[in-house]
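Bench notes, afternoon.
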Amino acid sequence: MGNIIKRIDKSKQRTTFVATGELKTGELLEAINDFYHAGVTLDVLWDLTDVDLKNITSEAIREFTKTPPEGEALRRGGKTALVVSSTYAFGLSRMYQLQKEIVEHAFETMVFKSMEDALKWLDNS
């Protein structure tokens, strides 16, 4: 069982999720749904550097990309950065990024292998 900690920085309009352990699809979906129903920020940072995603399938990625219409409106012009450390997590995260691009969401999504690069990208609006 994994763990996801959520931190909100209102001054930067950024929510950071730090995930650890072995995550399941339901845990990620719960965190995403909570975000869209309890305090949306413009930007999101997912720290997946210390997480095991072996239970996450490519089919589950489609579920993660579904954004409620009201969430789309609130995040227009925002960014989502995913920071990963494993090859498997990078592959899954790129699939997520590509799914987001296919359906043309109101915010950008990028995958990074370093926190420094992700933060630079998020901070350059």
